[in-house]
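Handoff note, outgoing to incoming analyst
You'll be picking up this chain. Sequence as last confirmed:
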Amino acid sequence: MHFIPQTPVYEDANSSSDASTIYSSHSSPVSSHQNGAISESGLGPPIWSNGEDAVKLSNATSKKAVASETSLAALPSPPLSDCELETEIADAVLEAPITVNPAKSNLETDKKLAKRLNLDADWMGTSQVYATQAAYTQASNWRKALLDDLTRSPYDPSIYVDLSSVDCKLGYTDICVANAYRALLLVQAGSDTAQITSLPSLANDVRTAIQFRLRTASSLIIAEELKEIRLQASQLLLDGLKGCSASWDGLQEAKKALKEFPGDPELLELKKELLEDFKTAHQELVAAGCKPKNVRELTRSGKIFQKRYPWVDESLFWRTPALVRDVNKEFGENAQVRSVVWGPEGISPTKRVKREGEDVGPLGIFATRDIKEDEVILVDRTLLGISDARSNQLDWCDGCNASLRMPYLNPKDVHHPDCCKSVAYCSQECHNNAIDGYHSLLCGKEFDWVYTSSLIGALGENGEYGSRWRPIMFKRLIAIVLSDMKSSSSAITHPLQHPLVARMAANYPHPDILTPESAHHWQFFENVVAPTQILLQLGIDVFSSQIFTQEVIQTIYWRVENNANMASTELTYSTPAGPVQGEKVNQVNVNPNYLFFNHSCMPNVTWHGGAVPDSNATEISWLRTGTAEGEVEKPGSSSVICIADRDIKKGEELKISYVGDPLGLGEEGGYWEGVSRAGKREWMLKWFDDGCGCEVCEKENEDARKKAVVAAAEENV
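Most recent structure output, in case you need it:
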């Protein structure tokens, strides 16, 4: 018998990307819609800029993993940049470019089509490929019946196969892939070809479930059934990957499946289709002018639409008055969170008080007093901060990511836990928050594979981040959630109800949109395999659990990536041989209060993170918190500091710009050097009047513009 280790391993886990890595010298928000107040158009995909823009991975190096081939069968090969294309793929890629200009979804057209065909947009799926199929199969109670079966027999892989088939027909091919993957895990356990060590009785549970369904104790019949289920699950896995436009992942999985079923016509046909899809994607990227390095990485990613999963209880998407009250306990005297509504005067506080248990809708932050220009409004610290520096290197605080090195922290002030030597903390507060919470679940478990296979902090040429930070963020978040759920005093019964998760909102399309205008990048390893393995490693039985399903996992992903901000820090530090310059750490943070800021192209609040872009060029004022004691944040920390960009009146909504400087010319030494704030605002007003294409700005009325003009005039005086 071979064992699936708690740490997934792969045939070739070395990564030596030849893509250069470019990091921004300042913190930058990545979300196109952080709190629900922006419509479906948003400002583009939340992590990958402009949909098809090139994204390059960091030049990270991973250890080569060694394992027997049978122990690898349940796990996909990671999308590594040094993995050579199959000869047949390379030969098949044509030099002649093919351009495709897909028509964008039209709301009115979609409404007419939905009415004519009696379609429900909520059930139109995440797949770009299988929309037509989904339209004709959505009205069915089959899925509900299968879920009922699953509650009674959670270890029967055939139910996951049936569920995967229904999800594929409905167009939710990302969920199809996940259920097929879980079926394969069960098949391997039942066949004694691999074992999930956190579920030692799983092999017997699988065989018992099949024995009960087939009403036979024959080991030969059960073995034959497991083989047939494996074939079906493999076919559905490839079909789902095709629907997710993940042709590279599909070709890797097809290669593994065909080793076991070499003559299966359906597998062969799916491999052929995946190959054609890969060729087309490659040619489109070349035609769009992408550089070869970027084409290589982008062709290893699929795409799906961001959609709600209609079978998930609607109340799990609500933000209630009770949640808002709890959030406001965390705000100081400067501001508070309130509901907002779109009206004839743009965004404003809602007039009607929501009832208890009711969804309060979009939220924003409003000043509770007059605030002076350059005042620090909010210092938002978070435990949801990750970086591409591993905690076990002991250079960075496991709680807040602050530097633990001299001269930024005296070694005697570093706190080490009693339980292990794999983490360290910058303060007693960070130590206590971690040890009393998430660390107890992570302590003693090996998660290096998440970093090895997930190259976080990768930047493209234009400064946009790659997406493989998500499994690492999921590990931290889910450890916090599980720790709180297991607390004896906890009233949390579902991960989507946890305060850190519930306060976040995804950027879902308009309810009447059948097919959204843009899709989001998706990978088999990152979106399915990694979170499943993390949950298993943390002791969650993903097969019997009714709450840690793939749709819940992906909903958490949608929320996190829509509310994350990214930064890089570069600190000079001392060594016996002298100062060392240039260490750069890339961070992804979800700050729980900062995320409620709405966007404006005429923001009244500026912000930056505790990450110091350059310790030689950055003054200590960068880290000031505005306290009378002159407190400063620790360099490298995952905090966000929000500062008034002008005088703000009580009751005014506080807004930031999600896209930074609207003109993109605000770098030091750039266009704005030496230009007064009034002069800059004058240019911004002109740009604002010309129209930026941002729906938020289009909704802000003439009155708001007049106020801005008056403010600019007063400042000039």
